[in-house]
Amino acid sequence: MTGRLDTDDLSAGAPATRPRIDPETIRDPPPESLFTARRVLLTTVILAALALLVWAWSSNGQQDPSLGASGSGVVVRYDPAPGSRVLRQAQVGVDLKEGYDGRLVVNGVPIPEEQMVGAIVPGTPAYEQLTPAEQAAGPRPNNRNVVKFQPGPGKAITRFTTGEVQVTIRYWREDQGPRTARSFTYTIFVT
Q1: Based on the number of CB atoms within 10 Å of its own CB, is 87 exposed (0-12), middle (13-18) or buried (19 or more)?
Q2: What is the pLDDT of residues 10-37, one digit of tens each?
């Protein structure tokens, strides 16, 4: 053999043709079951990975302080929840059980009671409507268990900076006063 094309089957000058395939001999692959072991295993692994990602994103590594010694079960509700992502003007703080009072410190800045949510500023019409006993109770006579702050013009913090924000809550039983205060800190993220 000299490497030449065998021309026995070819006419002179005609191009080589492909062998003819009979369509009757072509068969579809055998049908495969919808639930194969491989498909079930891959689906299970993908769903487990997605569930793990959702859990990791939602918990964000933060533990709810009211579940441990930090909040001692006094916290009724966080606003926003620890680890949450919020805007720069978001309200932050907690609702405590009735009979408790508290203050907050945000990123090391103590928030004056007069600037907390629900405070009634002396000299305003709302303050003048309070009884003398309520006026003596301070700027938050009717919502002492609401320990929240919203930044704004003229306040200790005008807006939160982007990134991690530490919120420290000092709380105590109203009948025992601030000398018995306990505290805990949680983190939110400002976007």
Answers
A1: exposed
A2: 555 556 677 777 777 777 777 778 888 8
Say which residues have a Cβ less than 8 Å from residue 81's Cβ, sequence separation at least 6.
64
Give pLDDT tens digits for 121-172: 788 888 888 888 887 777 777 778 888 999 999 999 999 999 999 999 999 9
Give the residue from 77, 118, 106 showing the smallest Cα distance to 188: 106
Whole-angstrom distance, CA of residue 46 vs CA of residue 50: 6
Query: Of 75, 53, 50, nearest to 64 (Cα)?
Result: 75
Overall pTM surpassing 0.70 (yes/no):
no
Class of domain 65-190: mainly beta
